[in-house]
UniProtKB/TrEMBL annotation:
The chain crosses the membrane at residues 12-30. InterPro entries: N_methyl_site, PilE-like, Pilin-like. Keywords: Membrane, Transmembrane, Transmembrane helix. The gene is pilE. It comes from the Bacteria. This is Type 4 fimbrial biogenesis protein PilE. Gene3D superfamilies: Glycoprotein, Type 4 Pilin. It comes from Zoogloea oryzae.
Amino acid sequence: MKKQRGVTLIELMIVAVVAGILAMIAVPSYTSHITQSKIAEATGSLAEAKVRMEQTFNSMRSYYVDGAACPDLSGLFKDTSFGITVECSNTTFTLTAKGTSGKTMDGYTYTINQSGEKTSKTPAVSAAQPCWLKTKAQTSC
């Protein structure tokens, strides 16, 4: 009798099924970690933006840079999946990082103000939370 060489169709199907099962587990976990890292990057940039706002206040005695305009902090968010909005007055400010839809972060919003009060809104929650939610699935502080 001749010795069989190569791979049978059944063996190939078993390998395909195992690879499919591994992909079903790995892909959602990977995307969750990517989202979590983008959130961490945005909250880190917001914290740095708050420090810069405080530096402006310490040197100008106002959050305005030239007496009428808020500082431009968009450079902190240049390479992130978020855009920043700065609202300020002489004695208050609110920084808002909003996820961009082109980079799969649509629906994520993080804010911080001069008092350090943080809020966040993600697609997983129906109302803004009084903290920064750090993962895609987190729904409360």
